[in-house]
Amino acid sequence: MRKSKDWTSWAALGLFAVLAGCAGATGPAGHDGTLGEPGRVGEPGQPGEPAQVDLLNARLGGWLPENRAALNALLASRGRTSAAFDPMRPPVAVFDWDNTVLKNDIGDATFFWMVNNDKILQPPARDWSLTNIALTMRARAALNAACDRLAAPRAPLPTGAGTAASNACADALYAIYSLGRVPPGGAGDAAAWTGEVTTTINQPYAWLAQLMAGYRPQDIRDFAQAAFDENNWAPIGATQTVGTLTTATGYVRIYEQMADLIDALDAAGFDVWIVSASPQYAVEQVAREVGIERDHVVGIRSVVTEGRLTYDLQGCGPVADREDTLITFDEGKRCWINQVIFHIPAATALERAPVAQRPVLVGGDSDTDIAMIKDATDVKVVLNRNKTQLMCNAYAGARERWLIQPMFLAPNACRATPYACDTAVDAAGVRIVDEAGAPFSTTFTDTICTLPAP
Questions:
Q1: Of 436, 445, 334, whose CA–CA distance to 392 is shortest?
Q2: Which site from 217, 358, 397, 451 is most exposed, i.e. has the minimal number of CB atoms within 10 Å?
Q3: How confident is the model at residue 400 (pLDDT cuts 50, 70, 90)?
Q4: How far is the C-alpha of 270 from the C-alpha of 13, rounded, in Å?
């Protein structure tokens, strides 16, 4: 159920311990265009207003005590009741979505739903290279062999029918998207992508947005909502069937603790955004579950022509539309934050911005969030999913700034072996570096993995 912005409803749900008198007001938008209207920002506190104390809802539990204290300190030092608060330039907070605010991945859930509900469209002339040029010849051949005879060009592929033929097409789509491999048989087991991952693009992530070509934005919102509802009602730990695979992840949950933090930040006057490597129209739909509206969501953005998505992707900074080499992924997230939220010119949008034009808080869970998390000036919230590059930086960082937090639901066990920070490389094959840009010279043992006792 989507949460209401009504203060009485919040109190009744016990999810948001926000002091009276902290309601937001309309303010300047983060960006303009077709994706939304001006956003909401805070107003300065009123004379005699009580100090903000423990805005995070203690009844939810889950937060490590030191992380709760650091977040409350940020709310007090940068929020609307602080002397430094400027309602015309509110502090910015940015969150990744998948596995940061939402347990599991709305992109994956939407892809599985589309396959199971016959929503993947046959490409024009059955030419799969139109969907993404980085598909290998073997991947395209596998898709042709499995899917060509099932539908005419631009028609829906019956991938959810449960027949041998429909399962073969669904299996090919799943293997290429989820595994990065051409499925066994036919073209044989082989890599599905050339240049699968760089510091600005993940080709399977991009492909999901590209497979939405031909639909209207509202269609994708509807698909994502249906996928969210189906997965949110499924039991925790549930799996689902896609083609012949029976072990695809089958559930999602909003982390109530992260929803609570987002609302506390909003109530304290912060300008709160979601920046995700899931498709724009999918993530903007489900971000409303935590009160974030469309104009404050940045996902993988497709070029829209005559009201319908195309296979082309919008560019950022020096990367033009239709070049399809940069999405909201790793350094691409920095670019989109700089361009959309802070209006930094395209020529320098890929570079680290000056302190005054950076978020004060960023939350993430993956190596693909590393650039934007490093850019946060005050607090970096890291959900520990045992990701090497992120955790090396988190363990090396100052504890009052790098807040390592076990996942709120089914947290990962501590990694059995130390993070090999001194030899690990990034997506470009370059040695990973710390905040100062220096290569690591040591390893780190994973120690922050257990939730506090209730």
A1: 445
A2: 451
A3: confident
A4: 22
Contact between 257 and 407 under an 8 Å Cβ cutoff? The reply is: no
| SS3 of residue 45 by DSSP | coil
Q: Which of 407, 406, 374, 411 is nearest to 389 (CA)?
A: 374
Nearest to 258 by CA among 362, 330, 336, 388: 362
**Pick from 288, 309, 286: which is nearest to 109 by CA?**
286
DSSP state of 49: P
Burial of 271 (0-12, 13-18, 19+ CB in 10 A): buried
The C-alpha atoms of residue 312 and residue 170 are separated, in whole angstroms, by 23
Beta bridge partners of 297: 274
Expressed in angstroms, the distance from the first to the final Cα of the chain is 25
d(CA 427, CA 432): 9
Reduce the DSSP state of residue 37 to 3 states and report it: coil
Render the burial of 69-107: b for 16+ CB within 10 Å, e for the rest: ebbbebbbebbbbbeebeeeebbbbbbbbbbbbbbbbbb
- Sequence-distant (6+) residues with CB within 8 A of 380 are 361, 362, 363, 373, 374, 394, 397, 401, 402, 403
**What pLDDT shows up at residue 2?**
33
Angle, in degrees to the nearest 10, between helices 106-116 and 217-233: 100
Q: Return the SS3 of 99.
A: coil
Reading the block at residue 313, the tokens are: 């992707």
Assign 337 to helix, strand or coil.
Answer: helix
What is the phi-psi region of residue 6: left when phi exceeds 0, alpha when psi lies from -120 to 50, beta otherwise? Answer: beta
Of the candidates 353, 371, 387, the one whose C-alpha atom is nearest the C-alpha of residue 437 is 371
CA–CA separation, 114 and 157 (whole Å): 10
The pLDDT tens digits for 83-137 are 999 999 999 999 999 999 999 999 999 999 999 999 999 999 999 999 999 999 9
- Stretch 403-418: mean pLDDT: 97
pLDDT in tens, 180-216: 999 864 445 689 999 999 999 999 999 999 999 999 9
Q: What is the Cα–Cα distance from 332 to 315, expressed in whole angstroms?
A: 9
Report which of 217, 216, 148, 183 is spatially closest to residue 157, judged by C-alpha positions: 148
DSSP string, 100-165: TTEES-HHHHHHHHHHHTT-PBPPGGG-GGGT-TTB-HHHHHHHHHHHGGGS-TTSBP-TTS-SHH
Question: CA–CA separation, 415 vs 388, rounded Å?
Answer: 10
Q: Which residues pair with 363 in a beta bridge?
A: 95, 381
The answer to whether the predicted template modeling score (pTM) of the entire model surpasses 0.90 is no
